[in-house]
Design goal:
Strand content: under 5%
Structural class: mainly alpha
Number of helices: 19
Distance between the termini: 95 Å
Largest sheet: 2 strands, antiparallel
């Protein structure tokens, strides 16, 4: 009697074909998705439902990541993140990406706010798997380089701007401050409202002046941190490969108790629900007290970890959750925000040589101070430089782009402190001084 082996393995040729990937998508699946999306577009059935958006954003993000990876030199300096964060915006401006795609992507991105799901999952994955005895040391150590770097960035950026012929008031309040203001929602918008009230002009005009600056600053931060990643590869003693402190705070090490064998998927689900819970707690605290939601979420995660309330299996589930989002969501997220939020015309508006030089020097100073102070603070230079450079990040999206280019997504909790807390302090002080001068 002949028995058919229904459990036979697929041909090795097929296995090899699936090993070829465009970004993170196997080549056969990528080609099939491409044809299906083209077909749906031809019959004008593009919707904002989750499965369709996963397909479109996945295709866009994977394509950009593959292009950026293959560009000589740029590919080694975070090219995938740079291309995913800015190329779609340019393609929208010249109508290569049609409005039939732009409109549903924009609607989905702004209505779903799935960036917060990404940030929540990455923060939980990072914090829950840190060495609990060294978390606070890491947060405390980064504040001094961040503070000194901010002061020197204002001074050096101001001097360079003056040498380029710019007005000091313009440099300080309309270049350096928005660069270090924490992005759009926490930086540029509060600044534009504050400046407009002080000067008695429309806030929209002020915002239009600030937006190009923060976009270009984020681009420079991506490039600089990609370069720091290259330095880490060339000189391994300068980097902890994602560890901030030299004292052994392996960000993904977790407790010494390791879970053996296969991770139970239920613990991954539990980690995901923890991320959602902490996000909602941050939303509530923001509504009650006006504190930045992501920062509240971050500190709640730290408290849970320090209180030893995270069992080892949950830590491993959080680690798996972190790795999933890092591998599959990063580039689609950057692609979506580039299409929906980043306007190419606003970016080009800052392409004046004197402004570009001033912005670059400001961002470079932040990174350099962190890099140079790291050893004395017991931190790795590459990681410290990346975290302080995130002070010029475009909010959460900017941090993701910067850390993706630097291949250091485990530093996101520290980057959030640099961007959110550092930005809030910068905006508050700048508005107080601007009001006095006016």
């Amino acid at each position: 009697m002949i028995q058919h082996n229904i459990a036979a393995s697929p041909p090795q040729t097929l296995v090899k074909v699936f090993n070829y990937k465009v970004g993170f998508i196997p080549l056969p699946v990528y080609l099939l998705l491409l044809l299906l999306v083209a077909g749906i577009m031809s019959v004008k059935k593009i919707g904002t439902d989750l499965p369709t958006m996963i397909a479109i954003l996945g295709l866009g993000g994977a394509t950009c990541a593959e292009i950026g990876k293959r560009i000589p030199y740029l590919g080694k300096m975070g090219g995938s993140a740079i291309i995913a964060a800015f190329l779609p915006s340019y393609l929208v401006s010249i109508n290569v990406i049609p409005q039939t795609l732009v409109e549903p992507i924009t609607s989905f991105t702004k209505s779903s706010n799935f960036i917060y799901l990404f940030v929540s999952s990455v923060v939980v994955g990072s914090i829950f798997t840190m060495d609990r005895n060294l978390i606070l040391k890491g947060f405390a150590k980064i504040f001094l380089p961040l503070f000194i770097g901010s002061i020197l960035a204002f001074i050096i950026g101001g001097l360079v701007g003056l040498a380029c012929g710019l007005d000091l008031k313009q440099i300080v309040f309309f270049i350096s401050t928005p660069v270090m203001g924490g992005g759009l929602g926490e930086g540029a918008i509060p600044l534009s409202v504050g400046y407009s009230e002080i000067m008695g002009i429309d806030s929209g005009k002020v915002l239009a002046q600030l937006l190009p600056v923060i976009l270009v600053a984020n681009l420079f931060a991506i490039i600089i941190c990609g370069f720091l990643n290259m330095i880490g590869r060339r000189y391994p003693h300068l980097t902890g490969n994602g560890q901030l402190q030299v004292t052994g705070d392996n960000l993904l090490a977790g407790n010494k108790q390791e879970v053996k064998g296969t991770i139970d998927v239920n613990w991954v689900i539990s980690a995901g629900m923890c991320a959602i819970t902490l996000y909602l707690a941050g939303v509530l605290l923001h509504a009650l007290f006006g504190l930045p939601g992501p920062v509240c979420m971050l500190f709640l995660a730290v408290i849970l970890k320090l209180s030893n309330l995270i069992p080892a299996p949950l830590e491993q589930g959080a680690k798996t959750l972190f790795q999933f989002f890092l591998a599959s969501v990063t580039y689609p997220l950057l692609f979506a925000n580039s299409v929906a939020v980043t306007h190419w015309s606003e970016l080009v508006a800052a392409f004046h040589p004197t402004i570009l030089i001033t912005i670059f020097v400001t961002v470079a100073t932040l990174a350099l101070v962190g890099f140079l102070m790291a050893k004395k603070m017991g931190m790795y230079p590459v990681e410290a430089g990346i975290v302080t450079a995130c002070h010029s990040g475009l909010g959460g999206t900017g941090d993701i782009a910067i850390l993706t280019a630097a291949e250091r997504m485990t530093l996101l909790p520290f980057a959030q402190i640099s961007t959110r807390i550092g930005g809030a302090i910068t905006v508050m002080i700048a508005l107080l001084i601007f009001a006095q001068l006016s």
